[in-house]
Amino acid sequence: MAIRNGTRAGLIFGFIMVFLILIGVPETINVILQEATTNIDVETGQVINTAAFLFVMGVVAGFAAARKEEPDPLSGAVLSGLIAGLITGATTGLMIIILRSLALSEIDLREYLDKLSPTAIESLALRLSPILAGGAHVLIFALSGATGGLLNWIGRGPWRGPVGQMISNTRDRLARLPIVAQAQNSPITRYVVWAAVIAVVMIVPQFLNDYWSFVLGTVGIYVIMGLGLNIVVGMAGLLDLGNVAFFAVGAYTVGLLTAPEPVGVLWDFWTALIFGIVLAGLAGVILGVPVLRLRGDYLAIVTLGLGEIIRILIRSDLLKDFTGGPRGVRDISGPSLFGLEIGSERTFLYFILVGIFLLIFVTIRLKNSRVGRAWIAMREDETVAQAMGINTLNYKLLAFGMGAAFAGLGGVLFASRNQFTGPEDHTLLVSINVLAVVIVGGMNSIPGVILGAFALKGLPEILRQLDEYRVLVFGGLLVVMMILRPEGLWPSQRTRLQFSDEDEPVPIELSSATSAAPTPIKADVEEQKQAATR
Amino acid sequence: MRQVLSVDSIHTFYGNIHALQGISLEVNEGEIVTLIGGNGAGKSTTLNTICGVVHAREGQVVFEGEDITTLPSHDIVLKGITQSPEGRRIFARLSVLENLTLGAYTRRDRAEFKRNLELVFELFPRLKERQTQFGGTLSGGEQQMLAIGRAMMAQPRLLLLDEPSMGLAPILVQEIFTIIDRLNREGTTILLVEQNAQIALSISDRGYVLQAGQIVLTGSGQELLTNPMVREAYLGEL
Ligand SMILES: Nc1ncnc2c1ncn2[C@@H]1O[C@H](COP(=O)(O)OP(=O)(O)O)[C@@H](O)[C@H]1O
Ligand SMILES: [Mg+2]
Fold first, then answer.
1. B82 Cβ under 8 Å from any chain A Cβ
2. Set of chain B residues whose Cβ sits within 8 Å of the Cβ of A237
3. B6 CA distance to ligand 2 centroid (A)?
4. Which of A515, A499, A382, A355 lies closest to A439 in space, CA to CA?
5. Worst-scoring range by mean pLDDT, A96-110, A267-281, A363-377, B125-139?
6. What are A155-164's contacts with CB under 8 Å, separation 24+?
7. Is residue A471 within 8 Å of A23, Cβ to Cβ?
8. Does B73 touch chain A (CB under 8 A)?
9. In this structure, are residues B196 and B208 in contact, taking their beta carbons and an 8 Å threshold?
10. I want to staple A45 with a disulfide (CB 3.0 to 4.6 A). Which of A40, A105, A185, A495 is the partner?
11. Following DSSP, what letter does each residue of A418-458 receive, concatenated?
12. Is B58 strand, coil or helix?
């Protein structure tokens, strides 16, 4: 077992390592780490950083290899980790022997792959001669692989039994204390938690420079759009691929109303903001009327076309005098508060954060309301929802309009922060990104949308060092993520049910109107299972 | 006896398929009326035409003196007709309580809601025990109870039940029909569709036999139970 698991993980990680080396990931990490740790000289840093990177990868490989091992003999887990490490190390070691030899004989590999610069190879070889470098790789990976296996064993090994028991016992006992139970049910606890979250989030920007404030601002704008699309797709179950249309309405509303050209009415930002949201929402409702009679795939295709039509319209010569055509709209004004310009990226980030908190509040209220229930019912079974007395067309329009209004706000913020908007800001890619935010994060889950926005708009910025391979790595990460967590990063309880085994009931606690005593669901499930086997 | 529902020679189509070819029937206040018939006879289509899921091309559906033929289904619920549909179709990813809450969607009065909920829980104590569980995790019998309970939450003046015994063990069928009978005794008017003709007719005041979109026979529950044609075709006797 150990040999097979180890070999499989070793081959997979060997392959991954070769790929990462070819696209220059180790060197990028080296550069990032060097920037972070200024007090070590470059050469030592080069060796330490690379070795650390290799070690971490080896630990991951060993951990992965040991995952399928039996919990009991420690040797199984460590052995499979060791084997995985050896194979990974042999692969990269072989590669580094070749690369290092070639580099030392003055062959410039950048002609073939531009990430294989002499310095990159030097770091990878830990500044050693080819053969020693190969050996070092094998050694590092063997050690780290075994460590990974050991860590895996510790994570779930036999010792976990009594200690784990103790922890869960303590937790149960704590939960049964009257004070704790009371605190859990009291709204005050909820307010305190929210206040703490808001406080922490509001402090964070103080530690960010302009660049990261900008990046987080972009993430924030996608959170806003994601929250909107989540209402449409997640709650109401309408697959909308034309979100960018309403983003564009918001962006162009603020642009045209506040910029000196081409319209030049020079309105105040706040008025334009309200107009942007309202107009986008209205556009959603108006466009929704013909579109929302369609179901499923048709709806997706038509909304997709809708987004493109808007983009083509705004860049057309026909509307050039009103929209600025391909050149877009410049000098869009930003918000000001009590006469103070919100100019810096950081203050703008605060502005976006306030918007996010407001929208989260609205979303939560909607979710637990009659409207939210109607949306969910409609998503689950439209015919039956109608038979419950739900006017599904109206509710679809409402969802579409709300999603559009949120997207409109996103557009307003985006255009006013960049002080510019043009047709290229409003491509299909925006819709797809927002949809990806919702799906990657986890449908119908607010924390999911936030995580999704970080993964999709924040991660690429962190990977920016990878230049042209950024998208490739990013795509790879997305694929891995969706394989590991198909239900999203932070799915809602309902989605979890859909992705869990069908015959494994997921008991949940939802607030009950009659506030009856909690039911012994566990026992019932057992009973059911026994009945089924009888 | 006051007439609650009168269906007057309705014709319903699915595209070119002429599913209902002039069905007429009526239901009086306080009755249980059963439609029996083979697969594809048009039983579900009849119920769906009454509650507006599909619409008749010809003919009329009159409920409490009002023509509801062309009303959309969400308006018909407001008039007082609800259905427990074929195959139950409960919301699998919603809790039992949420399913029931949705059933009461048209009833906005909170006190009334609580009363109806108590009523349903009293009828189906098992639903009360499982109110926080997801609908999809219930057993078949419990799902049927939930479907009926959900339909009852709107306090219907006419309850449509489409094959409540479908796929249930005999003992559960008995249990469900006992409850249907009780519901009726407590004042709910019921139009029932069943394949299980024996048990359905035995609790029914009247019945109709449907064949290929037409009504071929009608009579009291007892009459139909003893009718040779019914016995042969639907009760499996020769
Ligand atoms: N959605 C539909 N589309 C097309 N034909 C349908 C549809 N539903 C039912 N039918 C047809 O209408 C006829 C009556 O069906 P139905 O009312 O479901 O019968 P029953 O409930 O008595 O089994 C059948 O011939 C069936 O094939
Ligand atoms: Mg049927």
1. yes
2. none
3. 20
4. A499
5. A96-110
6. A156/A71, A157/A71, A157/A74, A157/A77, A158/A71, A158/A72
7. no
8. yes
9. no
10. A40
11. HTEE-GGGGSHHHHHHHHHHHHHH-TT-HHHHHHHHIIIII
12. strand
* Structural domains of chain A, ranges and CATH numbers in brackets: 2-157 (no CATH), 193-502 (1.10.3470)
What burial class does residue A424 get, using C-beta atoms within 10 Å of its C-beta: 0-12 exposed, 13-18 middle, 19+ buried?
exposed
Cα–Cα distance for residue pair A229/A376, rounded to 1 Å: 14
In the reported structure, the alpha carbon of residue B193 is separated from the centroid of ligand 1 by a whole-number distance in angstroms of 14
* Among protein residues, the one whose CA lies closest to atom 6 of ligand 1: B14
A vs B, Cβ pairs < 8 A, gives: 115
Q: Tell me if chain B has a CB within 8 Å of the CB of A506.
A: yes
Q: Which of A278, A199, A401, A212 lies closest to A220, judged by CA?
A: A212
Helix, strand, coil percent values for chain B (each to nearest 5)? 40, 30, 35
Residue-by-residue DSSP string for B97-119: HHHHHHHTTT---HHHHHHHHHH
pTM of the model as a whole: 0.75
Q: DSSP secondary-structure letter at B133?
A: S
Ion ligand 2 residues within 5 Å by Cβ: B 44, 86
Confirm or reject: Cβ of B43 under 6 Å from ligand 1: yes
Percent of chain A with pLDDT over 70: 87
The verdict on the CB of residue B44 being under 6 Å from ligand 1 is yes
Lowest mean pLDDT among A70-74, A231-235, B200-204: A70-74
> Pairing mode, if any, of strands B206-211 and B214-220?
antiparallel
User: Which chain B residue has its CA at the smallest distance from A374's CA?
Assistant: B102
Note the residue count of chain B: 238
Q: Does B40 contact ligand 1 (Cβ within 6 A)?
A: yes
Residue with tokens 């349903």: B120
For A505, the 3-state DSSP assignment is coil
pLDDT band (50, 70, 90) for residue A95: very high
Rounded to 5 degrees, what angle do the CA atoms A143, A146, A149 make?
Answer: 150
Measured distance CA(A231)–CA(A281) in Å, rounded: 13
SS3 A417: helix
Residue of A371, A388, A392 to mutate for B, most B C-beta atoms under 10 A:
A388
Whether chain B has a CB inside 8 Å of the CB on A496: the answer is no
The per-residue DSSP string of A299-312 comes to HHHHHHHHHHHHHH
pLDDT 10s digits, A14-69: 988 888 888 788 888 888 777 776 667 878 888 888 999 999 999 999 988 888 77
CB atoms A497 and B95 under 8 Å: no
Instruction: Judge whether residue A531 has pLDDT over 50.
Output: no
Instruction: Please answer whether residues A487 and A499 qualify as being in contact, where contact means their C-beta atoms are separated by less than 8 angstroms.
Output: yes
**Antiparallel, parallel or unpaired: β A336-337 and A340-341:** antiparallel
Ligand 1 center to A179 CA (angstroms): 59
Residue A439: C-alpha distances to residues A313, A436, B2 (Å): 29, 5, 55
- On the 0-12 / 13-18 / 19+ scale of CB atoms within 10 A, A263 is middle
Q: Which candidate, A438, A443, A437, places its Cα nearest to that of A460?
A: A437
> Does A515 lie at the interface with B, CB-CB under 8 angstroms?
no
Please answer whether residues A276 and A217 qualify as being in contact, where contact means their C-beta atoms are separated by less than 8 angstroms.
no
In ligand 1, the atom with minimum distance to the C-alpha of B43 is 22
